[in-house]
Amino acid sequence: MARWRNRPEGSTWGDFGQDDRMGRLNLVGPDQVRKGVAEVRDGVTFCLSLPLNLPGGAVLNPNRLPPVLRPTLRSGAIGFNCDMMIAFPGASDVMCDDLVVLHTQYSTQWDAFGHAGSHFDADGDGTAERVFYNGWRAGTDVVGPDDLELAGIRSLGRVDGATEGTASTSNAGPVDISHMARHGVQGRAVLVDLEAHFGTERTLVGYEALSRVLDADDVVVEPGDLLVLHTGFTRLLAAQHGKPDPDSLDVCAVLDGADPDLQNWIRDSGVAAIAADNYAVEAFPPDHELQDEPALPLHELCLFRLGVHLGELWWISDLAAHLRAAGRSRFLLTAPPLRLPGAVGSPVTPIATV
Ligand code: UVW
Q: Mind listing the GO molecular function terms for this protein (predicted)?
């Protein structure tokens, strides 16, 4: 039985099954993989991830901090440059083990569907509840603590890291990132080079501007394609060597997530996922007072209604330069997130093969 009586207008809820957890990635099957492989001509690969300690500091989002690495223990000793002979006399090995306290959305990342839901009357009883993609509910399917201490937020703030028996305090279950990982995320991708047309000035890109770029560059987007947007943002960010100036960040192209024509195009194009090299793919924070509407309309459309994952802060400029020089826009993309049950986002090391 469906978990909802109302489904959001224009949504894909139920289209891939009442219990679906993968959304439009269902469109990326053997045909899309074969089409992606057919785009491999030069045999050249590009790593589309920033080093995960960038952007540096907490300027993009004060609640997201750089990763912290610490050694684990080995045989009661600090497990870094550690002599195996402590446990096994006569052993010549020198060992290092570590742990990481990682904000899953600090750097190059995928957003899971559990990252953004909405207040929506899914039961059709006249009351809005907190709901995620395909009707999965906050509180029953997506669970988190209601108390800061329970959340472990203070202790993570001090970066205590995990000790044996440390329990997770949140779990996005059916809308967590592990379902994306299970898919594998490999298929044909299409690059749209916004920087080549708009430069690095802040530009709000709606449907009209996007379709002018698609026409000018002869870019064709088909159902099941993975859409990758190049804006130049992470290149400018990385050039600041981990110490970004907060006043330098209002730059480069961002999608106008509130543009209804752009929303229709994303829905009708059948794109399976969208990734960009900027902070939120779309403009954020909102530039007007909100009245019962999403602050992140593209997130609402993609993560909540359509089941289209969003990738952010990717490193795309080298790939964009190569494709432009070759007069191409398509490539094979392999970009699985971590198979991390419960998480609402994940770092990713996307690989483009051209
Ligand atoms: C925000 O919280 C702005 O979301 P994202 O990391 O998806 O940009």
A: arylformamidase activity
